[in-house]
């Protein structure tokens, strides 16, 4: 009887622990929103400086139509730029990672390029392509392809020499080693880079929209800020964060399914 009670108690403790882990992000959000609203009310902060959570929620409801329209523009622009970044980053990472000479030669150049603030490219892109979606797409691409290149190249470049020697002795060619061993081995690196890249892609899109676009969340926030409608500005920030978190979680789930062998259960 005592054993049975102990087993049941352990079961419920495990269930409660898993439930708390799943609810932890939502609990953190609720606590953060409460602190936000209480702080604004306690210090009587003017809404044109820092709106409260309730005012921001009201702006989300009041301007749901424009926010939805501009959010969709930002979303598909970001996905196109991100898709270009994945394609170019994967190919370039494979080329660089397959050759030690190219790895040593190109890595410093990539680091130097990544150090350039991507907002500095926006005026150049405007001159080349005009104001609109193209500069936003290219800015998202420029800011997100670097982590993909680096992670894929690192995954290939760190292939154990002993494993490669054994495979070569067994008759595998260099390309066979890279495609059948190197690429699968670099998948954890690749999916880790996707989670980073998608959040950076949203940053690139919004930065470009604030400077060189007449649509998108970045443009909406700039317009609202110039009119001192800070509730709408913060509503735009929340929408950007929500889209980025959803995409991050999507790639995190893909990572778990595709690279379960590389992680502890």
TrEMBL record:
Residues spanning the membrane: 23-43, 75-97, 109-131, 137-159, 189-208, 228-248
PROSITE patterns: ABC_TM1
Family designation: Belongs to the binding-protein-dependent transport system permease family.
Pfam family, one: BPD_transp_1
Cellular component GO terms held in the UniProt record: plasma membrane
Name of the molecule in the record: ABC transporter permease
Keyword Phosphoprotein: no
Membrane topology qualifier: Multi-pass membrane protein
Keywords: Cell membrane, Membrane, Transmembrane, Transmembrane helix, Transport
Subcellular location: Cell membrane
Biological processes per GO annotation: transmembrane transport
Domain ABC transmembrane type-1, residue spans: 71-251
Biological classification of the source: Bacteria, Pseudomonadati, Pseudomonadota, Gammaproteobacteria, Oceanospirillales
Gene3D superfamilies: MetI-like
PANTHER family: ABC TRANSPORTER PERMEASE PROTEIN MJ0413-RELATED, ALKANE SULFONATE ABC TRANSPORTER-RELATED, MEMBRANE SUBUNIT
């Amino acid at each position: 009887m005592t054993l049975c009670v102990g087993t049941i108690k352990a079961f419920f403790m495990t269930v409660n622990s898993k439930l708390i882990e799943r609810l932890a992000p939502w609990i953190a959000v609720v606590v953060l929103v409460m602190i936000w609203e209480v702080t604004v009310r306690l210090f009587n902060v003017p809404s044109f400086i820092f709106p409260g959570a309730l005012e921001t929620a009201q702006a989300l409801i009041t301007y749901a139509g424009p926010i939805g329209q501009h959010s969709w523009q930002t979303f598909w622009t970001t996905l196109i730029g991100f898709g270009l970044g994945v394609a170019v980053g994967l190919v370039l990472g494979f080329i660089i990672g397959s050759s030690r000479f190219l790895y040593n030669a190109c890595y410093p150049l990539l680091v130097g390029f990544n150090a350039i603030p991507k907002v500095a490219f926006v005026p150049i892109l405007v001159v080349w392509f005009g104001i609109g979606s193209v500069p936003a797409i290219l800015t998202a691409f420029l800011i997100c392809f670097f982590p993909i290149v680096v992670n894929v190249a690192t995954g290939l470049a760190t292939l154990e020499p002993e494993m490669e020697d054994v495979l070569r002795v067994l008759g595998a060619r260099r390309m066979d080693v890279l495609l059948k061993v190197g690429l699968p081995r670099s998948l954890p690196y690749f999916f880790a880079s996707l989670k980073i890249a998608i959040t950076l892609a949203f940053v690139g899109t919004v930065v470009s929209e604030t400077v060189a676009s007449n649509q998108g969340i970045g443009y909406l926030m700039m317009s609202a800020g110039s009119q001192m409608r800070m509730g709408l500005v913060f509503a735009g920030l929340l929408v950007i964060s929500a889209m980025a978190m959803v995409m991050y979680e999507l790639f995190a789930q893909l990572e778990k399914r595709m690279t379960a062998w590389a992680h502890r259960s």
